[in-house]
Amino acid sequence: MAIHCMIIILVVQTHILLIILLVLKKNMKKTSIFLAFAILFSISLFAQQGGDWRTGKWHRNFPEHLLTLHVSSTQTVTQQSITNPWSIGVNVGYENRIRPYDKKNKVSLGWGVHSGIQLYPGLNINHNATGSIEEVKFGSYRTYAYIPLMASASMYITTRPTASFFLQLAAGCNMLLGQRDFAYEENLIYVQKDPANSVKLSHFIPSARFLIGFMTELAPNLRFRGSFGVQYEMGYTDEYAGYYLDGGYIEEENIFSNDPTFSTVIELGLAFSL
Asked: Which stretches within the chain are classed as H helix?
């Protein structure tokens, strides 16, 4: 409809221009001024329609640049929940969302990247000591952190002009900061070699996550976002100093391949439209 209106306006404008040119043909100076004015007016019409006047094409989609800030929490659902069952963290990211020009189109796409830090506190190691009926704390499992480096693709489904649901798939790696103990099963837990738990990057773990969420507008350039989903971390091989077996510690160095880890994810945050 907008294209048809534009064509009609240009045709009418051209006829008016020809009529005025005939009237002003004896005065070239006035004619030149009028031509310049007409050209500028045509350019402004194209610009208002979201088009490129040099090609006469209309841009059907408009990009929206989002700067995101999220607080996230995970809950481990595999064996690793014995040592590090939950995490809390924050991440920042950028997303390029393509918003359709046609308001009837309820689906839009986006891509982005994000990074941050996710802290996994280690649980206390409690066992029944000989001659005691109460559990005694012997120490705690390793506390470690992830630094995620993720790229994401999103699909938005608009429900009303200021709100939408989205599906997001992210993939990349989690850089392991520190070291983590590994729970093979409930009564068999492998313990890391480094007694000081040095803060260093020890592994790059391929990871992926799938989220379902919503986004709603709080102000013209501010959005609230919330999502939940699942996270997958690939298993890897590591060296261990020993292991806890049925409450007792056995010092025995070995190399062991960890199983993949699955977690549930919840994220809440803000998106700033740039």
From this structure: 2-23, 28-48
pTM: 0.71
CA atoms lying within 13 Å on the CB side of residue 230:
5
| Distance from C-alpha of 236 to C-alpha of 257, rounded to nearest angstrom | 6
What is the tens place of the pLDDT at every residue in 37-88? 544 444 444 444 444 444 444 455 667 899 999 999 999 998 888 888 999 9
Distance between CA atoms of residues 91 and 211, nearest Å: 15
CA 42 to chain centroid: 41
Residue 273, classified by CB atoms within 10 Å of its CB into exposed (0-12), middle (13-18) or buried (19+), is: middle
Alpha carbon 138 to chain centroid distance? 40
Domain extent listing, the chain: 2-58, 61-273
Fold of 61-273: Porin (2.40.160)
Give the tens place of pLDDT for each residue, 76-97.
Answer: 998 888 888 999 999 999 999 8
Distance CA 44, CA 197 (A): 65
